[in-house]
Amino acid sequence: GKRQIRPIRVVRHTIFNVYRRLFSIVLIANVIALVVYLLNSSGVLRINIWNLATASSANIFVASAIRQDYVQGLLYRCAWLIPHSASLKMRRIIAKLYENGGIHSGCGIAATMWFLALTVLAAIQFSHGVFTSRPLFTLTCCLQALLFVITISAYPALRTRYHNNFEMSHRFAGWIVIIVFWVELSLLATATANMESTSTGGVLAKQPSFWFLISTTFHAILPWVNLRRWEFQADHLSNHAIRLHFSQTVSPFTGIAISRSPLFEWHPFATMPSLAGEPTGGSLICSAAGDWTKDAVKNPRRYYWVKGIPKPGVLGMCLIFKQVVVVTTGSGIGPCLSILASPIRKTACRVLWSGPDPEKTFGSEITDCVRRVDPRAVIIDTKASGRPDMLALTYSLYLECNAEAVFVISNPKLTRKIVYGMECRGVPAFGPIWDS
């Protein structure tokens, strides 16, 4: 049964999930640091703008670094070192590592907060003649406006409703912020050098914000260095789904993002290894869900762009458990197969898969693969039997096989419902989050 009273369950498992806890810790720590710094200053007109720039650039650096493919891969690989003999409580905590997006969001808001303090301070000092550079003050205001655009467009409700606009504003405004930050840093260093009768380069080299900005610039460029055009072979599974095969070798349990227009939109997919009798390489399953995927199913391209390094997703965390229940609906079976079909997987898996006529929609190869992994897999045809009570079935399967955890890949509503329902019963449950 459920372990706590409803208000506590709601706060613990929804309002204050791990993502939001990380977000809150990062933001509160920055707020405290800013308040302490301002209280300990010897007056508004004497506050050193460089210190505020350093705090802002440090947060921007962390926000960009935590999102890097190589950092995500490293975090997962560290988690995979945890043996199955470790306590379930420890492994349950470590498995939540995939919710580290809270650090990205928290640092992004904190960077905007620090820079807002810098902008207000610059305005006060400018009005008192302490801060005299008009171009520098103008750039500061422009940079603040850009940070506001990035922050506001990333608000969950707006991001979901206007996702393409969010993606472009986040990318292009982010690049412009870095460029403007470089110009501003150079102007600030020049002004400081003139006052101290020293070189601009010498001033920059002494400033942490300079080195943070170098690292942030490196991280902005790095994924594009790995931009490649891959060839895909389309295998039409049905009118609603397509399987795209590629010859490149990717690490087990990882996913890639593909695009027709690299500058504008990217679509992530989990990869699965080649099945028995297929050429080496891998594949991904694309199901007609949105405008882009519907067009991809109807008119698949021979070539798509792939950026960055293949990185693990939430399902990668199932490897630190001895036995798990994998719950999915419809095309969610694609990401699940990245784990289920892996020949090096040591985790025992039970599968609960619900969808409209799965064998007809995704083909016998896919359903046969699922049954090879779990001969007793529960595959439900919702066209024939209607939509089942997935929460009840999940809990029943969890108890039946004495699993250690439940992993859910479905639409946001059902994923949250099952994860919440399991967590309330003390069952370790994991699924994608849509907050980041």
Based on secondary structure, the structural category is: alpha/beta
Count of separate structural domains = 3
Count the E strands.
14
Work out the strand percent: 5-15%
| Mean model confidence by pLDDT | 90
Q: In this structure, how is the largest beta sheet organized?
A: 5 strands, antiparallel
What is the terminal-to-terminal distance? 31 Å
Low-confidence segments: none
Report helical residue fraction. Answer: 55-70%
Number of helices: 18
Give the overall shape, derived from the CA principal axes.
elongated
- The radius of gyration computed from the alpha-carbon positions, rounded to a whole number of angstroms, is 25 Å
Keywords: Membrane, Transmembrane, Transmembrane helix
Organism: Amniculicola lignicola CBS 123094
InterPro entries: Adenylate-forming_domain
Protein name: Integral membrane protein TmpA
Structure report:
The chain has 436 residues and is an alpha/beta fold. It has 3 domains: 6-225, no CATH class; 228-312, Beta Barrel (Elongation Factor Tu (Ef-tu), domain 3), CATH 2.40.30; 315-430, Rossmann fold (3-Layer(aba) Sandwich), CATH 3.40.50.80. It is 55% helix and 15% strand. It is elongated.
